[in-house]
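Example record

One chain of 335 residues, shown exactly as stored in the release files.
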Amino acid sequence: MLKSRPMNNLSQLDSQPRSATDTSAITALCKAAGDPLRMQVLKVLQQNAYGVLELCQVFDIRQPAMSHHLKILANSGLVATRREGTTIFYRRNESHPDIDLQPLQQTLFHTIDEAALDPGLRTRLETINRERSAASVAFFNHNAARFEENQDLIASWTDYGDSVESFLDSSLVNSQSALEIGPGYGQFLRKLSECFNFVTALDNSAEMLERCRARSESQKLENITFKLGDTILAESENISSDCISLNMVLHHVPTPASVISDCSRLLNPKGVLLITDLCAHDQEWVQKACGDLWLGFEPQELTRWATNAGLVQGNSLYLAQRNGFRIQLRQFLKS
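Predicted structure tokens for this chain:
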């Protein structure tokens, strides 16, 4: 009787199902993330996008060296790029182009996110974000009188306001309190005033807030409190709400993901976050003419930020404008 010989280890390996992923791609990903500085870059890009010069400022290194590290991260699929005007911004690539590498990448990002950020890097990041915010506030303080004129260049409230108000009607669960962040001239405040017992209008531009207040007083809206500040102030004053509105605001703020995270903490249980904003576009003129920091957002970006903040995606509506812009109305719920 013939005895079968045991298969050697090499034969066993050869008999296993082969992955479509080349081991060189795995090596490239691990090598890209294995450098201490590149690991910190991935941590910095956790919730926001930055340009190469901003990252040079954060890490205090010269541009050629930073560009070299970013190229390695991009070639490995760990970061993605997007041009905003004349600046290329880098952000983490949450969906690796090689689907077989996605589990490895997700594990890597999760581990990085659990690590602490160096205090020095955090301080420099905060400086950059303050500079971005200050530039946005300065624009609106200087252009408060032209707000509606500038807004009409992209999307007039009359073009999409009815849809936003219908979104609100379909979202109402509790109607005690509402918070509108960046209310502009207060076009949405009349509807919020009708639907909620107490409404807070929050804006970090004193000029815009004063014009909003004047308009609301002329409409005799008596249940609105006006606050000068941002979501950090709202948290410090515990302005919790059943509904929060971000109407054409996120493309003006330096850290959109952080604002969504702040809103999640400010929402009461069963509260709703309503976001109205532009879909991603390439019309660079809006940055100078309208003070936009970001050229809109991909819908999946907003979904990812909201999901990371503990919110659940609800209804969505997309509206095409005559000038080529698309508006996304998004509903996110807190359990």
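Notes: The chain has two domains: 24-117, 146-333.
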